[in-house]
Write a structure and sequence with these properties.
single chain, alpha/beta, 11 helices, 9 strands, carboxylic ester hydrolase activity, AB_hydrolase_fold, CE7
Length: 336
């Protein structure tokens, strides 16, 4: 486990990851195919006993036009389009119950919490989005599904769904398309980072201990889940190591970070054995926009938990609660 004494060495780390030469062409073709389906957000009111928040069952077309589910939560007392926050959840989880995750709507945002296809049966509430695409041999879990090829890899579909979530929300009369931010913890942070690199014009971003960053180094540093799935897969398929990492090169957060421009807040726990803090810092160093980093000395994968969310709330308020866009020149000073 790392301590405060290890921070200088941690800050000095730079990843050896090199993105594929056709990274941009791959994602351009992928997203153009998805855009054959109109980005509409279909909303069905959900009856709850909440008095300050309205909840809608939200559905939009993702990769292949497949239906992707989420919850859209809105402050009940509102007028006109709202600044919006699109949130992605942790590995194995789902969108949960309608009355959960009320933070962002309570703070005055249109809040779209997006399912991750095929997940939602492990913890913290169920999901409602199937993945109709099959895969070849994979280790139990999600990380290695379709990993034989970049075109069949599950996160191609997941990241495309996430981009389409922002595009669909921007068509809604409830959201101001010029005031949209993305956020998420762990897998959700990795998905948000991909969106930040693929979607222009985002106003802000928040990544808590993002998964899928500096992937090969992460697999060397930790044996914890979900990276244990990748280790187990390659332990059984020793002839697939280089091909597997060629596939993963198209999905590494470091490549998306380099293309992102929205002001961003990163966080990591020095005791995180799930997404090692060095991998979050690797993404931070590659990030193309204004950025801040918070390292939490005695925290693990929670990356500061609610205290870190307080930082994000304050940052988002400064950037999203104005109707006209003024680029924010956030300090790049590091914090620990």
């Amino acid at each position: 486990m790392l301590t405060e004494d290890d921070v200088p060495e941690l800050w000095a780390y730079r990843s050896a990851y090199r993105e594929p030469a056709d990274f941009d062409a791959f994602w351009k073709d992928t997203l153009e195919a998805a855009r054959d389906h109109e980005p509409r957000l279909e909303l069905t009111p959900v009856d709850t006993d909440l008095e300050t928040v309205d909840v809608y069952d939200a559905v939009f077309p993702g990769f292949g036009g497949h239906p992707v589910h989420g919850w859209l939560r809105l402050p009940r007392h509102r007028s006109g389009p709202l600044p919006a926050v699109v949130q992605f959840h942790g590995y194995g989880s789902g969108r949960g119950a309608p009355v959960e995750d009320l933070l962002w709507a309570s703070a005055g945002y249109a809040h779209l919490l997006v399912d991750t296809r095929g997940q939602g049966g492990a913890w913290a509430g169920g999901g409602a989005t199937a993945d109709p695409v099959g895969s070849g041999p994979s280790h139990p879990g999600f990380l290695t599904r379709g990993i034989e090829d970049r075109d069949t890899y599950v996160y191609r579909r997941v990241f495309t769904d996430a981009v389409r979530a922002v595009e669909a929300l921007r068509t809604s009369p409830h959201a101001d398309p010029d005031r949209v931010a993305v956020t998420g913890p762990s897998q959700g942070g990795g998905i948000a980072l991909a969106v930040a690199g693929l979607v222009p014009g985002l106003r802000a971003a928040h990544f808590q201990a993002p998964f899928l960053c500096d992937i090969r180094q992460a697999a060397r540093l930790t044996g914890e889940q979900p990276y244990a799935e990748l280790i187990g897969y390659l332990g059984a398929r020793r002839d697939r190591v280089e091909q597997t990492f060629r596939t993963l090169g198209y999905f590494d957060g470091l490549a998306f970070a380099r293309r992102a421009t929205a002001p961003a807040w990163f966080s990591a726990g020095l005791r995180d054995e799930v997404c090692p803090p060095a991998t979050t810092l690797a993404a931070y160093h590659r990030y193309g926009g204004p950025k801040q980093m918070r390292l939490w000395e005695f925290n693990g994968h929670d990356a500061g938990g609610p205290e870190d969310l307080v930082i994000a709330l304050s940052a988002f308020r400064a950037l999203l609660k104005t109707s006209s866009h003024h680029p924010h020149q956030q300090s790049r000073k590091k914090e620990s």
